Structures are given as C-alpha cells and as structure tokens.
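Consider the tokenized backbone below.
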C-alpha cells in the first residue's frame, strides 16, 4: 500500500477518535479547550519566532563570527557548502543550496581582506537561517506544552457542567461539532511533530520523508500553512 495513503488513513482515524473523545466532554469544555489550544499554538509560534532569532543573536552569532573571521585572517579557505552541511546537515539539500547561493551573491561585493564583514555575512545569511529553525522547533513545543498545562487545568474545572441534568445533555449534543474543530487543531499539532521529525532526521526515515509525505493530502495541506517556514 502507498505509504502516503497509509499516512492519510492514520490521520483520518486520529481525527475521528479525537472528535468522538471531545464530543463526550461537551460544548463548553470543547470551546474552552479549542480556543485554548488555538491560543497556545499562536502563542507558542510567536515565542518560537521571536525567541529563536533573539537566542541566536545573543548566544551564538558572535561566537560563530569570531571563529570564521579568525579562519579567514589566517588565510584559511571558507567552504560555504561545508559550513551549511556541518551545522544543518539534517535540513533538505535544496534549502541549504538556496541559502548558500544567496550568501555567495552577497559576498561578491565584499572586499576579500575584510574578514569581519565576510564572517558576519556568512553568519547572518548562512548559519542563522539554518540554525534558527531548529531553535524555533524546540521553543515552540516547550511553550506549547506550558500553555496546554494551563488550558487543561481550566478544562478540568469546566467539565463539571456535564453533571447538570438538562444543560449537561445539550452541552454534550453540541459537543460533536465543536469536537470536530478541536480535533482539527490537535491534528495540526501532530503534523507539526511529523514535520519536525522529517527535519531532524534529514528525511532518513523510510516512512517519514519529504518524497513520500508530499503525496499525502494532509501533509500537503499542512505545508501550505507550515508555521516554521
């Protein structure tokens, strides 16, 4: 069976199971959890985007710049392809090549004896675009986990609504539609994890790689709104 078809079937089953699970919780709980999950995704994405750039500039950029500048000053050759492979060999080759090509074009107008300027250009245009996505992934999942803890505590308290006689029955009935929306958010998070595994493993897994997953309906849809790209 086509691996991408198997992946789509698994995603569909996960979505249905989550929808039914949410439906039993009732509308109020689902709305709070759905809104909370969405807010957690958006909040985690913002933190990851801001934090990855800040962490790189504050803790990594200067160190990389000094090492590269020292190599240039000593007359050593700088191989941009090797730098890209060393620090982000797990990323798709096409992405690494495009970043290296853009840096090479920027270096055309830089004086060959200006080691600091060359080093800074390499750091900002080669190393930063390769490393910040990895930092972003880590920050995203850490922040999302913390946000979800808060949402889960609130959902537990609101679950008491289902114990009310009439209101509880209506709440559970309306929970089906709300559950479908909430499970979609959860499935999006699952696809984020799948994408992260593909990136971290460099597509080395036989069942989780770009060539196979690009045929998946779910994965193609996720690629259109990938928060990390």
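A designed sequence for it:
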């Amino acid at each position: 069976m086509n691996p991408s078809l198997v992946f789509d079937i698994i995603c569909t089953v996960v979505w249905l199971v989550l929808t039914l699970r949410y439906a039993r919780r009732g509308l109020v709980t689902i709305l709070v959890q759905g809104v909370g999950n969405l807010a957690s995704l958006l909040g985690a994405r913002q933190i990851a985007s801001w934090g990855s750039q800040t962490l790189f500039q504050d803790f990594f950029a200067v160190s990389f710049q000094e090492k590269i500048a020292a190599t240039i000053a000593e007359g050593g050759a700088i191989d941009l392809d090797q730098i890209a492979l060393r620090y982000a060999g797990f990323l798709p080759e096409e992405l690494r090549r495009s970043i290296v090509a853009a840096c090479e074009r920027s270096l055309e107008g830089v004086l060959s004896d200006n080691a600091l300027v060359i080093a800074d250009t390499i750091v900002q245009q080669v190393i930063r675009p390769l490393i910040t996505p990895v930092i972003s992934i880590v920050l995203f999942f850490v922040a999302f986990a913390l946000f979800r803890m808060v949402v889960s505590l609130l959902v537990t308290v609101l679950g008491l609504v289902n114990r009310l006689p009439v209101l509880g029955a209506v709440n559970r009935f309306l929970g089906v539609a709300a559950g479908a929306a909430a499970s979609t958010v959860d499935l999006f998070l699952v696809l984020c994890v799948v994408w992260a595994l593909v990136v971290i493993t460099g597509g080395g897994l036989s069942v989780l790689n770009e060539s196979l997953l690009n045929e998946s309906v779910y994965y193609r849809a996720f690629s259109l709104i990938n928060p990390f790209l």
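Residues 3-224 form one domain.
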